[in-house]
Amino acid sequence: METSLGGAHFAPTTTYLNTATAGLLPGRTAAALRDALDDAVSGRPTPGAGFPSVAEARASFARLAGVAPERVSVAAAVATHVGLIAASLRAGAEVLVADGDFSSLVNPFAVRGDLKLRSVPLEDLAAAVRPGTDLVAVSSVQSADGRIADLAAIRAAARAHGARTLVDATQSAGWLPLRAADFDFTVAGAFKWLLCPRGTSFLVVPEADGSGGLPLLFAGWAAGEDPWSSTYGPVGQLARSARRYDESPGTLAYLAARHSLALVEEIGPEAIGAHDVALADRFRAGLARAGHEPVPSPGSAIVAVPGLGHAEETLSRADVQVSVRAGNLRAAFHLYNTEADVDRLLDVLSTVPARG
User: Fold this and answer.
1) Is 3 within 8 Å of 338 (Cβ atoms)?
2) Contact predicate 314/303, CB 8 Å
3) Residues 290, 296, 302, CA angle at the centre, nearest 5°?
């Protein structure tokens, strides 16, 4: 019997092809959460919970991102981190984004009202950087259709014009190797391809001393150099690292995150990516045989198919979990999936007529 790359770490009871919406929790992560809930009921302290778990998760993400943990801040959501960056910009600053990029990346700039938000097609993003562009913000992989941004070209264009860069790796971290040091800021929601619960987000800032020109909007006690000495009154010494930007973390979410991130590290994003993309390519080949043309996204683990958005209901009844984004059927393939999952998806789709 065919086994997934994740092996015994997962036990899906459906054909789950919806990681671009939310990843499945590994068994070890679920077990840690169950133990913590039992402890919460009984009044016993959970070993390693709280700041130790946050520190382990931070360090694990830092290794995956290729940076020092001192450059990593934690929060509950990407929009919180992007909001800090938006708040740091001068009035009138130009922010360049890709058309249709995810709202958590775009909207914190839009709601400022006094910024110049300019949007162009993803493929034109590098060429659209110009003198006076202050920040280029882009998802490494587009949520709606899986297209992969040309980050090298975007980075080069931004540097040539003195613009800073912000990359949202939410749809790529875990299967596409991440080089956060190449950019000024990197954010990643961890509840998708990094297999963590909701309530886990990471921000990489430019310097290990926590500098980066961001406002300290959420600097509560957890942002202190010694949090347990920072619980009353003004914090005497903020953390000498990106931890000064931490939102007080949800301890259960980060207790779970440390176990999920450890598994991603053990298997490795390179191996995971090769597995995921092979399954996506198998799906693309099957679509071509059936006369369907997906949105071009070579090398991506996400496949979006125009004309098949209406198939979601039929697929759901057949216990095949996908999603619909921008009107297209979207399938996402991860380490708990197998070739049999792809074939099951194609078999059910063969019963559904296409629409224009």
Assistant:
1) yes
2) no
3) 85
Residue 29: alpha-carbon gap to chain centroid? 18
Q: What distance in Å separates the CA atoms of residue 238 and residue 257, rounded to the nearest whole number?
A: 25
Rounded to whole angstroms, the Cα distance separating 184 from 207 reads 9
For residue 24 the two structure tokens come to 């499945």
- For 166, the token pair is 């912000």
First-last CA distance in the chain: 38
Q: Taking Cα atoms as reference points, which of 157, 161, 204 lies closest to residue 183?
A: 204
What gap in Å lies between CA 68 and CA 194, rounded to an integer? Answer: 19
Amino acid of residue 151:
L
pLDDT in tens, 137-179: 999 999 999 999 999 999 999 999 999 999 999 999 999 999 9
Say which amino acid occupies 326.
A
Contacts of 1 (CB under 8 A, 6+ apart): none
Asked if 104 contacts 171 with a C-beta cutoff of 8 angstroms, the reply is no
Distance of CA 36 to the CA centre of its chain: 25
Task: For residue 325, give both structure tokens.
Answer: 């984004």
Three-state DSSP state, 18: strand
With tokens 């059936």, the residue in question is: 290
Q: With a threshold of 0.85, does the pTM exceed it? A: yes
Residue with tokens 């939102």: 247
Q: What SS3 class is residue 157? A: helix
- Whole-angstrom Cα distance, residue 10 to residue 30? 10
